[in-house]
Specification:
This protein is α/β, with parallel strands linked by helices and about 280 residues long. α5 links the parallel β4 and β5.
């Protein structure tokens, strides 16, 4: 199990170089193909429905501005990929909005690298709910980098949030290439007594054995109940000095969680280390 194609979002954000650097490091480590994708912000449906005639003179300046923004971002990606020595890479400019464009491109990648949106930052391709949208509409794992901090490596200590759900199973499976290289892996099971039918007699034992067969040794940690699981995950990550969190995103009650808040929303809003999520 390995990553063969890694997709990284390239936009005008000041944090894009940090995102590209980590994606490039993962691509070189995994001998994977790196794709830098920039969206112009012009949704394809504008043309399909005939709302805009691209040949009309009054829209030309706007189209040129959006194209230039995407091209500048991709020029930075190209220079960075060459400087870092990425062996296999390509830059893609797409006439689409960031959400739909990335969700579509993600179908052809093993991992999608995104950034936590900057508060108050605006520009083509910068969307406040982008990680959530791609997570829910691509069926691919997303690795989200926080808006602050430096994350050149994420192979020291990984924290796995395990609740036995389908989403957590997908996340842990998708993270195996990263977990194999981690110096330490902690698998946290919160209030296992409340989910005996999922965890079995020894909480965490089955998934730990599964991961061990993939070359990942874990330390299982049973945690007490928490009113806010998202906050509990973030607190434990800080306590362990983890440099990666792996968890499922938006489970069976995803509509309720998206409207009222929940672990996924909490972690995406307040993360301090990169988070790999799958849905």
């Amino acid at each position: 199990m390995s990553y063969r194609t890694i997709l990284v979002h390239v936009d005008p954000s000041k944090r894009t170089p940090e995102r590209v650097a980590l994606a490039a490091q993962l691509a070189m480590t995994e001998d994977a193909h790196l794709v830098g994708a920039a969206m112009t912000g012009l949704t394809q449906f504008i043309y399909q429905c005939g709302a805009v005639d691209p040949s009309a003179g009054f829209v030309t300046p706007d189209l040129s501005f959006l194209n230039e923004c995407a091209d500048r971002a991709l020029a930075g990606f190209t220079a960075q990929a060459e400087r870092l020595g990425v062996r296999s890479w390509e830059a893609r400019r797409l006439d689409d909005d960031a959400e739909a464009g990335l969700a579509l491109q993600a179908r052809y990648a093993d991992l999608v690298v995104l950034g936590q949106p900057e508060e108050g930052e605006a520009g083509p391709g910068i969307v406040a709910t982008l990680p959530e949208y791609v997570l829910l509409n691509s069926m691919r794992p997303v690795l989200v980098l926080p808006r602050v901090g430096r994350f050149e490596h994420i192979d020291r200590h990984a924290l796995l949030a395990w609740d036995g759900s389908l989403e957590a199973t997908r996340a842990l499976t998708a993270a195996i290439p990263l977990l194999r290289r981690a110096g330490l892996v902690t698998l946290a099971v919160f209030q296992p007594s409340a989910h005996n039918s999922v965890h079995g007699e020894v909480p965490g034992a089955d998934i730990a054995l599964y991961l061990a067969r993939h070359g990942v040794e874990v330390e299982v940690s049973e945690r007490p109940a928490a009113d806010d699981i998202g906050e509990a995950i973030l607190s434990l990550a800080a306590e362990l000095d983890a440099d990666l969190i792996v968890m499922g995103g938006y489970g069976h009650a995803r509509l309720r969680e998206m409207v009222l808040g929940g672990a996924t929303s909490t972690v995406l809003r307040a993360m301090t280390v990169p988070v790999l999520m799958a849905h």
